[in-house]
Queue: 3 jobs
Job 1
Amino acid sequence: MTDRLRRLRGSPASLKGRIALTFFVAMLALMLVMLGIQVNTERSDARKLREARLQHLQSTWRTALESYSTNAARQVPMLSALARDGLHAHGSTSVISEATRETYHRIDLMSADGTILQSSTRPRPGKSLADPGVIVTRLRFESALSSLQMFDDGDGKQPGILVALRASRDAYLVAVRSLSTVAPLLTTGIAGYWMIHAPNGKLLATDLPQDVAARFLQPVSTAPEIADLELDGRIYQLTAIPLEDLQSRRVATLTSIVDVTETQLEDRNELLIALAAGLGLLLLTTFLMYQQLDAQFRPLGELSDIVQQVADGKLYGSTRILGSATELQQIAGAIAVLQANEIEAEHQRFGTSLHQKANLLLIEHEMERLRQTLGSGAQRALEAQLAHESEGPDRLGRAFRIMIDQVIQQQTRLTELLDERERDLSVVRQALAERGQLTRLREELEIARQLQLSNLPGDDAMQALSARLDLNAGMRPAQEVGGDFYDFALLDDRYLLLLIGDASGKGVPAAMFGMMARILMKASASQHTEPGQCLALANRALAAENNALLFATAFLGVLDLASGRLRYASAGHNPPLVLSASGKLTALDAECGLVLGAMDDSSYPTHEHQLATDDLLVLYTDGVTEAHDTARQLYGEHRLGTLLSTLPRGSARDAAQAIFASVDRFTGDAEQFDDMTLTIVRYRPAG
């Protein structure tokens, strides 16, 4: 507390300095803001003035062109006579003054297609002064046209004022006047000087002396529309507009040159005078404010000295303050009371200190008893922590907190150990229960798998048909029990039933639904010879009790072993493939019906296909074509067709093994996603 008061000594003086500095900075910022507003206002006014000059320059040029159009409209007979007789002829056109002749370089009487009918130039030129199409089109809506135009006078391209108007129904007058004739109009309408120059910087016309104009020409040719130019200590404002011909091509630039030196100097001097006056007023105001603060803060300095004495322990010093500040004298009286209270408090602190020492001895005795309850390891850790604690008035409190932490840590470790053992025991019990359930589930799935496979035709059934038919069938379920199914059986001595399908879902439910579908189709095939009718009967039975909303795709075919005719129907199944003996691959992708079990009134059309000797019939489920590799790319029907096309002629078993091997190579380490089922027949007529 004492050190803090020492650092605050002399704070009244620093406080009044900070107040004065803050006032100065605030007023300076306000002055700068007002100055910025004034500068922005002047810039805005200057910008508006420049835009007004630009608009005035454009208006002056348009007015000059309109005056040419108006005058030319009044002089149609005269211009026609000049076009007929020539600018330098006399006789019938002698009434035309020489001044009028000299203002025109060339006058043409032109037809609508651009043919020069008459011309003041001898010999008659073959090319119009401007695009006749533009002239004819624009004169449909205007009585006369005028614009700046570059024309060839024999000495090269020269600028001139082109005037076009309708002379009669099918003839147009086109005249070019000297560019110098526009000078009086521009000099009258433009405040300041002006010049017209080509895009390449060539001076075309001006009201400045040639030597002066040459000094302005380079800066003017590269200046933007509105710009300031400083030349020979003078400031000129340049305003430029493009001049276009009838084809809207820029052929020259008109620039006005206005001397704004005096105006800008006046604005700059006014700004400097306002800035100097504001800064002087700000300094004077700050000085007067500092003097007033000094008078007000002097008694506060005396009060600061009294407070410093109390802070230094001089409780019996004077508390009198010179001056008339009533509030500060009241504060001094309060400090005197504080001195008396501090003396009494010193006596009370001595008694309190004796009482605290007695309490500390009692607390240390109880802490020693608590330490004895800790384990040997916790006691050693406690003693090591206390050895690093520094001496001080709060050492006992820190030691007590350390001891409490040790007790809490020991109790927490015991609680965590008990909880951990309880969790381990629960995990062991749960693992044992799950292991038993898993074992039973595996046993049940193995029974279901054996049951499913036992219901499908196996090697014995294929061996029994080997004397009459080369057939091979097999299935690879994705899980222990799959949803795919297949079947084949002789309906009689001549006809062979072929079945293959895929039930929705996987596992036991899919296998049961597939088994029902296979049994129903096989039973209906034993009574009906139409494959479509067999599928319809099986579908009606499956859809009637399909509360689980399962469905299955299926292909049912009846093969005539003697003739090779295959009659078949499909319930949304993958179209079988037929590889002919010549190597041609065909898909049996005729119209099929809806999947089995979806709607009880679905119909299934019956189709036919004629198999030839050594044709290979391949029935498969989507587990073959939708097998994917680790990059999630599908095996696909294209790879299957390519493989079949390249197979050497062999048995149905060889073809099945080649397909499964190709899929295995493609999928690699990827997990099998769906059941894969194949039924392959190599047809040879029964003998």
Note: Residues 90-95 have pLDDT under 50 and may be disordered.
Job 2
Amino acid sequence: MSSTLNLDPLTKTDRPTSHITVQKRKIGPTDLIAVEHGTTKAYFRVDREQEVMSNDLRNAVYLHENAAAVFGGIDHSLPFRIHTDVRTSEVPTCDEAVIATDNSDSDRLSAHLASERFLLHHGIEEVTRLDGQLVSFDVVETVPQGYTTVMVTDETEISVIDESEAATRKSQPGGTRDTPGRATPAGPGDNPPPRASDAGEMDVDIDISPKKPTVSFEEDVAGLEEVKQTARMLLALFDPETRESVIKRYGENFGARGGQLLLYGPPGCGKTLVSEAIAYEAANNTNIESEYGEVQFLPVKGGDILSRYPGEAERRVEAVFEEAHRAAQNGFAVLFFDEVETLVADRSDDNLQRHERSLTNAFLQEMGTDKIEDNLLVIGATNMPFSIDPAAARRFPLQQFIPQPGPEVMGEVWEAELSDLQAANDAVELDYDRLGEASVGYTPAEIADRVLGTDLQRELIQSVVDTDANAIVPDTKYFLERLREHRPKTIRQFVTSVRNEADALEGYPEMRDYVADQADRLGLSMQHGSTAGMSDAATDSSALFEQLVAAGEQSTGDTDNSSESPSDTER
């Protein structure tokens, strides 16, 4: 069954705002779904009582007309996507709520919202069904703030005020709630230029909604034990008890938090997974949530920030950090920049264009040591660390190489990717060690996306649909045959693109040695710098810890001079 549907939204008034109605056969047994429309994502319950069993719904979904305001209204030119594979843990829990209603039995209403685990939505008048009657109330304030949807629980402190007091609060400066903006339909061709708002500012069109991290080291990241250990040590100093013990035993300097993290290495080897797994680790295997509040993960692609309009990229960088600060204010935020090299190009490059230099300066300004609070962790990922501006590299004092997996880890990748298939074919034996050995040279992304991607899915479906086709036995031999039909491309393309940068790679010895080894394996020559005498520069856990605890000292005294050259930086 599909986990994502694009349906036609129709508004009604005879139902609660927290529920929507979808044909049961389309979504299965789930009672919690996510709706994505325009730039907004919100969560709703599935209304079983209102479900239409006939064909009246067809490809439609019913929701209360007030709920449409969550998305700034319904724009039928844009997709209305329903995501059915939603976990309850994805919806932030409401700690406090102030609601306004003229209903005389406010205590009963509060108890009802808690028992129903009611979903409160930002910026609308809510409607619930109480004793068979529809009762409306206005959400004046929620804690945490800044989320489209929060869930009421038995632990939620609900304060009820009357409508007149609510109107007074809204009339006070800063008392009016922001309302989600209407999604502007995109015209043909390129995106329209940014518009000037009434205040003279330029609107920023980038979606940076925080989310609950769901990728874990244990279940989703194969191998990379050294990387996992580095992440755990990084997070350890955010635990007050651990930090206090380190300071008591070794002094203040060694208890200083290590600051921000740069993940670098060849493409397709897990940098994005590792970043979200770090956020998951912070939420589930540390005391960070009990100290700061809920952990939120904010992933951003560098390419999504770039713009052809002057000054727009700089405004997007500012907007991203503003959202991260807002998330951190209500808990703990992990802000992840993929392709970070696109945002912090080296300003000593004579070929750098003016807007690229300006973007680097804007990023450095936001990453100033006085602007990153204790409960905000910034992670950058790049395939080309040598192209990053030296001052920006120092903003990431902890730098971790993510290597291409060897045969043992590639075997774990196969096992993770084929877990569902193995469960459905328990009589079939799969030799994951053999598959791992055979896939040396591939990246995990190539195995998942190419070898086990849509072509395989099409072949498996065809074997079911076509009654004349032979049944497929998905055993080791079958997958070895599939491997023979492909060739690893990612690492060859990567090494070809960076092999001329041997001199620049001197600052990143692990990557330098990796590129040299791969160039030798692939029969490619290294240029512009000798690789003779390259030694194994793998860093053990104790060295990484020293780098971590000393990071605070390394980040002091940074200068953002655009004339700075790579020679000014000690890596």
Note: The domain at 217-404+542-568 is CATH 3.40.50.300 (Rossmann fold).
Job 3
Amino acid sequence: MCGINGIINFNNETIDNHIHIMNDLLKHRGPDGMGSYKNQNLLLGHTRLSIQDLSEKGSQPMTNDQNLWIVFNGEIYNFKEIKKELIEIGHKFYSNTDTEVILNSYKQWGTNAFKKFNGMWAFAIYDILKKELIICRDRYGVKPCYYYYHEDKFIFSSEIKPILAITNDGLDHNKILLGEHLKEGCFTTDYKKINIIEPGHYYRINIEKKDIEKQRWWNGLENLHNISPNRKIIKDKFQEKLNQALNLRLISDVKISTSLSGGIDSSIIFSELNNINNSILELNPFIVKYEGNLTYDFAIKLCENFNKNPFIIESKNDLDINSIISTFNYLEKKQPYSKQLALYESQNINGFKVSIDGHGADECLGGYVDNIKDFAIASQNTMVDAYTAINNISNTNLLKILKNNYLTPINQYINFDLKKKFKIDNHYQFIDSSNNIEPSNSFFKDVITLQDFDFSFQSLYMKSNYGFLQWLLNKWDRASMRYSVEIRSPYLDFNLFQYALSIPMNHKIYAGKNKSILRDAYSSKIPDEIINFKNKQGLPSNKNNEYEEIILKNSLNEKSFKESPLWDSKKICDKFQNNFNTSEKLEAIKICESYLYDLAMKKDIPDLKIKDDQFKYNILN
């Protein structure tokens, strides 16, 4: 796990210290080493978190033939299997890294190699002879990669801040008021020209021709599983695939830890890990204790069952402007999720670099209240099952659900709902925003294909591929990598995720239980109070009335806020003095969050005039 950066100057100008500055802003992602590579008008940068092959042979940028150069962030869990195949073909290796396996795989199979990889990644490979850069992301977007493309410059990075350091890009007033999930699903950011490399895609950049080609190498709809109608077979197959995913994620040259919430997903991971005999595992889990945590006692009891001594992280909802700014900066999000940061800070303090966690089960098994609302009536269950499932995890009245037309076919659903999200004709009070946002070509192609599926699957697939899952993964990536900890998520193993996604909805909601197949599969291994727990609870944000007041008061009086051309600051301040109505307050809070977010994102950016000799690492030519 690491941080990657890159700059292409199509006008043939290169400024070497720019890649150093970008690397320096990612040193939290890779505190064990930094490196850079230069070839004419291309610069590559890397910060290293040493997990596989801790020797210098694992340093990046890496080459093994002086033609292909790579910077890589992530893990290829099946790299040993692929390496064996490549050695039989005749390839030579000089390290024990998965990075070198990617290089030789690309050399052997080109972009077809990506389908062989089981893991999480964002990497860039430069071919000197072809003067061509390939940037590739994993299937679901577990590992992030952002890019900026304008006129004669293309820049990419694992995070947004390094790109801002070089471009000083500004907020886009058309995106300020859009929801976070929507922006993630359209693979864009709050900034004008900073976007997201799409998951399951690679971008091919021809430097001489100044040409950028985007190709989809993975399509989840083309990789669904045939599911047996036999419920026992489904349960056994799910357990088999989860165990395979867990064992794959044990490859490491450093100790592996885990976190535990007491919810069903992390409890299954924790319990199954305790049944694996591997000295690399340290299974005294990390547990966040906070006011209102409904599953804390479950987590403690599970630790007692396995005779483990957990690390307890006491998390409080202390709020002040400095903590809010820091959280915005660390997470690169306009949301105060400090508990996630506290969790991985504790893991770092206690000497861990890797944590196997339970993210991803809800997204393939439909574990959220919104999933239930979307597919409960459309599923093959009886009305009684739907009613029971909804009331098991929320206080939502079934009649309110029935008022929504959840049985609408996908083409009407998209035309009526999602397209409006991309062009909203709201008349805002304080900002002149068209709210236009353009979804990807893959989105529209998937919408056409999804017409042949039932609505319950349509809903789950779109939410797991276009927005919510990507937002969740980015949040957890920033929280963990802020403290140099790599998260490994067995539920996101593509063999398991695709299998779970393919399971018919009548097995996911069954006998009044959501994620029913998961609960039934592990009912003999997990305590009944966890299996039967009704509420869905993740680590909550610190967003409350106090937070809103802090956001408003620390924005409205600032000179730079008042002088911004992006919003009508006078009108906002006047309304603030005379009390906002509900919609005005919500809009004002979003604007003030954006203002503080931009300040937070740019507060650590150094002077671009820093000289190269102030850095302690060298450009490789």
Note: The longest strand covers residues 68-76.
